[in-house]
Amino acid sequence: MKGRRLVIGILFFSASAFLGFAAPGVAWAQQAPRNGSGGAKPAATAKPAAAAPAQTYAQRFAALCAACHGANGRSEMPGTPSLAGQPSFYAITQLFLFREGRRSNEAMTAVAKTMTDDDMRGFSEFIGTLAPVPAPPPAGPVDAARMARGKQLATEYKCVFCHGDDFSGGQQVPRVAQQREEYLASALHGFKGGKRPGYSMAMSEALRPVPEADLDVLAYYLARFTPTAK
Ligand code: HEC
Ligand code: HEC
After folding, report:
1. CB 228 within 8 A of CB 149
2. Which of 82, 111, 127, 215 has a CA positioned 20 to 30 A from the CA of residue 98?
3. Which of 169, 153, 195, 158 is nearest to 10 (CA)?
4. In which residue ranges of the chain is CATH 1.10.760.10 found?
């Protein structure tokens, strides 16, 4: 069982490494001056007397984000993750990665590029207030054997160690329970294949021993996971 202990050791190491690394990284992200905005919003501060009352981030989310991510943060759009139930700390790290071009997606990179540090904080705090919405289970009968296999894999590869027994996440670890299945699958393949560099090495290390073919089983299981019917 030497190999197993080594894997756990790596997970402990990476968990503490990213905890130590993430906090200053985000603090920096929040404080970094956003110069060079290139006159994107020329008139915003030019006429304070006529300024309309500032929109809240709830209103801005409804106007700018809900079309893709859903009104209550529950996405009904393929390839687009639900945000309801995500910890605000996780949300801000991802917005930061999109803005800096380290996580790439055409739609989200375009959205994040326009964000100031205050915007990243404001949207993330708002996302943190969205209660997880029970998603309608993916269509079709549930394959009990595939669920059992998914549960076995999630235990064997210590997914619960960071994401929690109920997969609700916390801090910079995302909620993955009842996330959209095709999004989960693309995220897992992205980490495993190096297309999605994480904020830390946590996920690439966690997935290193997992065979590529098992990633879809994990996505199937997590998308249908409920705390009562594990
Ligand atoms: C045109 C559609 C679109 C719009 C508009 C949009 N998003 Fe996204 N968003 C996406 C997609 C697609 C992804 C997943 C990208 C990927 O697969 O890497 C994403 C990912 C995210 C993530 C990471 C979620 C996770 O689980 O990792 C956050 C946070 C986020 N968006 C916040 C926002 C906010 C805040 C707004 C509004 C200011 C917004 N998005 C507007 C399509 C959109
Ligand atoms: C050492 C802690 C750790 C372990 C173990 C771990 N994760 Fe993660 N996971 C994370 C962190 C941190 C992130 C955020 C990724 C980043 O760095 O940007 C994440 C992200 C994810 C995402 C992306 C979610 C989204 O909304 O985009 C999925 C899916 C995921 N993990 C599933 C799993 C599965 C399945 C396992 C087990 C095979 C696992 N994780 C094991 C810490 C961990």
Report:
1. no
2. 215
3. 158
4. 56-133, 144-224
Which SS3 state, helix, strand or coil, does residue 83 take?
A: coil
CA–CA separation, 210 vs 204, rounded Å? Answer: 10
What pLDDT digit, counting tens, does each position of 102-155 carry? 999 999 999 999 999 999 999 999 999 999 987 677 788 999 999 999 999 999
Q: Residue with the nearest Cα to atom 7 of ligand 2?
A: 203
- Angle in degrees, 0-180, between the axes of helices 2-31 and 88-99, rounded to the nearest 10: 70
**Would you say the pTM of this structure is higher than 0.70?**
yes
**Count of CB atoms situated within 10 Å of the CB of 169:** 19
Can you state the angle between helices 144-156 and 212-224, rounded to 10 degrees? 110
Tokens standing for 185? 């699958």
Look-up: residue for tokens 């801090």? 171
Site to substitute for ligand 1 among 55, 61, 69, most atoms within 8 A of C-beta: 69
Residue with tokens 């375009």: 110
Q: Which ligand 1 atom is the nearest neighbour of the CA of 179?
A: 26
Binning pLDDT at 50, 70 and 90, where does residue 27 land? very low
Q: What fold does the segment set 56-133 form as a domain?
A: Cytochrome Bc1 Complex; Chain D, domain 2 (1.10.760)
Q: What is the CATH number of domain 144-224?
A: 1.10.760.10
